[in-house]
Write a structure and sequence with these properties.
Elements: H1 3-21, E1 25-27, E2 40-41, E3 46-49, E4 54-56, E5 64-70, H2 75-91, E6 96-102, H3 108-117, E7 120-122, E8 125-127, E9 133-135, H4 138-142, E10 152-156, E11 161-167, H5 172-182
Parallel strand pairs: 5-6, 6-9
Antiparallel strand pairs: 1-11, 2-11, 3-4, 3-9, 5-10, 7-8, 10-11
Length: about 180
């Protein structure tokens, strides 16, 4: 290849990488009006909660769900937890829930004490996570198209349609707007 072709190929490759790392969003453009169009139906997956009970995602139909794949060791994940706590506080009475799917290799052994003991600064208060936490897996993540990194979140409508995918840390103003559009 010529030097120009190599340079062009490198520029395209860097653009694709930058779009994925920056947390590009799939779904309706941010300037559109109304509810975003659905990307796909939610997959038929069943998580385990921290007590070992089965939690089918389908059992949440009728609620707007923000499914958040995260890990205790993930700094961007920790950074968005206060936003998730606030979303849960503000909207749980309106038929909304955050569902945190922990992707830690050591599962319950690491996640349970983190959820119980780790406090986050939210509106001047020191709070623990106030939304349901389940254990994720690579198999479950693959049914959502796989994870290129964490955090990765999916906004799911009341009828079980994935309406938006968020890669990387959440933009607080955008996620509030998107959640409210589904309530």
């Amino acid at each position: 290849m010529t030097k120009v072709a190599n340079t062009l190929l490198l520029a395209v490759l860097l653009s694709v990488i930058a779009a994925n790392v920056s947390g590009c969003k799939i779904g309706a453009p941010s300037g559109s009006s109304g509810k975003p169009a659905a990307i796909a139906n939610e997959p038929e997956v069943t998580f385990k909660d921290l007590q070992g009970s089965s939690v089918p995602l389908a059992s949440m139909k009728g609620k707007v769900v923000l499914l958040n794949f995260w890990a205790t060791w993930c700094e961007p994940c920790r950074g968005e937890i206060p936003i998730l706590i606030q979303l849960q506080q503000k909207n749980s009475s309106k038929g909304f829930t955050v569902l945190g799917a922990a992707m830690d290799d050591d599962g319950q052994k690491v996640v349970e004490p983190f959820v119980k003991d780790t406090k986050f600064s939210v509106g001047g208060q020191s709070l623990t996570m106030n939304y349901p936490i389940v254990l994720g897996s690579d198999d479950i993540a693959s049914q959502f198209g796989g994870l290129l990194g964490m955090p990765t979140s999916f906004l799911i409508s009341r009828d079980g349609k994935i309406v938006k995918k968020y890669m990387g840390g959440l933009n607080e103003a955008q996620i509030i707007k998107d959640v409210e559009s589904q309530l």
